[in-house]
Amino acid sequence: MTEPWKDEKIDAIVSIESRGFIMAGAIAYKLNTAFIPFRKPDKLPGETYKVSYTLEYGSTEMHVHKDALEEHTNVLIIDDLLATGGTALAAIELIKRFENKNI
Fold first, then answer.
1. In angstroms, rounded to a whole number, what is the distance separating the alpha carbons of residues 67 and 17?
2. pTM for the complete prediction?
3. Is 8 noted as a catalytic residue in this protein?
4. Is 19 annotated as catalytic?
5. Which of the following is catalytic: 3, 47, 56, 71?
6. How far apart are CA 33 and CA 6, in angstroms?
7. In order of start, what are the domains of the chain with their CATH numbers?
8. Where is the Phosphoribosyltransferase domain (predicted)?
9. What is the CA radius of gyration of the chain?
10. Rounded to whole angstroms, how far apart are CA atoms 26 and 17?
């Protein structure tokens, strides 16, 4: 399951709430790296970065703590489903709020 990334020097796995957390947590554990959840609105305490994006049936926001990726440079996004790609693009936009990240 982690073979494609074992030599990639990934130091953080990002996943989008909530079904992606299941697979992403296992992959982060296997790669011995950080797991960082991107959450729906009003789920995280403290200061967050957020991005709005469109779904097939409406729109929503994705949030992450402002300090979540400070120590991490090489980030892998894990999601459970790819339909329109809007969620993945929103995750990329959110990661880019942190400087010097390889996605």
1. 18
2. 0.87
3. no
4. yes
5. 56
6. 11
7. 3-95 (3.40.50.2020)
8. 7-101
9. 13
10. 15
